User: What shape does this take?
Amino acid sequence: MAAEAVALAEKQVAELKVALAQNHNQIRNCQQQARRQALAVRNGGLSVQAVRKVLAVYVVSNWDLSLAVLAAQRLSRLPPCSAAFPTSDFVSALFREHNWEELLMLHDDASPLWAPARKYARQLLLEHDAYLWVKRLNFAHGVAPSASSVFHYYEKKALDAEPCGEPRKRTVNKWAARWRARWGVRRACLRSADTVEPNILRDKVKAFWRSIAYVTAKFSHQELVWINFDETSAVLPHFLVCSEARLPKSVASGFAALPQTKLRLLRAKSSWVTADSMISILADVRKALAPWLPMVKPILVLDTASPHLPKKVMSFAKKQGLQLLFVPSCSTSLLQPLDIAAFGGFKQWVKRKNMVLRQTAVDGQPELLEFLWQLSQAPRDFFGGKKWAHAFEGVGCGRDVTKLHSALKKFMQHPESFPHSAKPSPAEMALIWPKRRKMSYAGACLF
Assistant: This one.
């Protein structure tokens, strides 16, 4: 018995030593993290590599302080509301206090220490030059250049020569999306240089109105319920499509444990909407509308994004008793009710709610679960107060020309009536779809 007691005591002592060592490691890690955070605050939230990048921008831009401040604020890990967030005085002091011998190595191409900083500074200056070029076109000609034109200008400056060959469209779109996000450029805030001719766009609008007239006449024995697909209401669910990497399973499980709302999380490998996710969404919408379907006919207004157009999506919607109505390509700014009545205000609403969360969050970074919960309140707090009937009437769903929104009425040269309720012809259907998209099956699936 004595030997067993001694062995048990030795085992407990060993376990205590292991636990004590783990505690020491945790304390040391916390101390190191606290020192790093204190150093980051003193350095405006910039790491050593970030400091070199800011200084490289300042020197390579020929002492442009505003660009250096922009680089510092982009690279800073502090929230903008922090008192230590980089300013022009901070960047000036950073330059004065830096080691001059080390700074002179910036111009040495053989120095690996400054190579990432030189690359970052060059890219920032090229993107800034493209940004200024777009502004000049906007102000001088009232034209917003296409993404391919901006990418061509950027490559030409980067290579200092005319680029060879045409880049892939996907490459251009990915670059343009990142560039717009970094420089706060709004897409299509002016007419595009390669936009659709006004007469063709008017024909597209008339084709859309023809579809409305035909659907309205076809289901005149039922009450029509117009639904913009991203719209949320007291009855319909709304959906957030997100990648598994951006939305961990633990956060999704935590959200599922909260009181149920209308928000549905669709996690997948990619955050891109696919035909399969569209079918899942349509099934959920059909389930939500089931009690009313014998009396009403739901009409879902969609744009011509590629996940909305596959034959299996249209066929599934038809089998479920859902009538799809497509806004013609290149006309969403005129005919998409969400673009007209919701998106601008919704983005501002999300921004305000996010700022409130930042004020109470640790280090100014709100938890993802908190943000999801706030987003799930949008149907009640934002969309619930919208007069959707007015938005649909404004694009012609009510077939009353006096209720069209002013921009559409002016563009269509103040129409006196809508097209009659004949079935859209193949030529009219072709005006709805994007170029080079073969949609021979659409007529049978829709009408």
User: Anything to note?
Assistant: The chain has 21 helices and five strands. Residues 329 and 434 are 6 Å apart (CA to CA).
